[in-house]
Amino acid sequence: MSKLTEYTLEIYKADKRVKKADRYGKSKPGLRFYQVMDFDPVTKDYIETVAEQKRKLGFVVEVFETFVTRKNMMSGKEYQERYDTPYYCSPSSETFWSA
User: Fold this and answer.
1) Structure letter (DSSP) for residue 89
2) Distance between CA 49 and CA 54 in Å, rounded?
3) pLDDT tens sequence for the chain (99 residues)
4) Measured between alpha carbons, how far is 77 from 70 in angstroms, rounded to an integer?
5) Which of 5, 8, 27, 91 has its CA 20 to 30 A from that of 69?
6) 3-state secondary structure of 2
7) How far apart are CA 17 and CA 45, in angstroms?
8) Strand-strand pairing, 31-42 and 59-65
């Protein structure tokens, strides 16, 4: 039996018009951001099947575990944080604690 984990898929369309990363969005050079799909706890096999189906349709898919474990800089305690939290909003960074 596989471990159940929450996953997020970031889906992009190939687009050669995008020349540089979008500062405020998720577009990347050669890829235009299309969609984010969050999943309830599922197995790794299931999420790879879903990602492969999207790839067959011509999309570029990146798979992430939705939550990562980080250490609070001030207290030293570990906590769960969403993978795409900006560093300046994360208690694990110095910029979060400087005022």
Assistant:
1) G
2) 9
3) 468 899 999 999 988 888 877 776 788 888 989 999 999 999 999 999 999 999 999 999 999 999 999 999 999 999 999 999 998 999 999 999 986
4) 8
5) 27
6) coil
7) 34
8) unpaired
> Whole-angstrom Cα distance, residue 45 to residue 39?
13
DSSP annotation string for 42-82:
E-HHHHHHHHHHHHHTTEEEEEEESEEEEE-TTT--EEEEE
- Dist. CA 41–CA 31, nearest whole Å: 28
The Cα 84–Cα 99 span in angstroms is 22
Q: What is the domain partition of the chain in residue ranges?
A: 1-65, 68-99
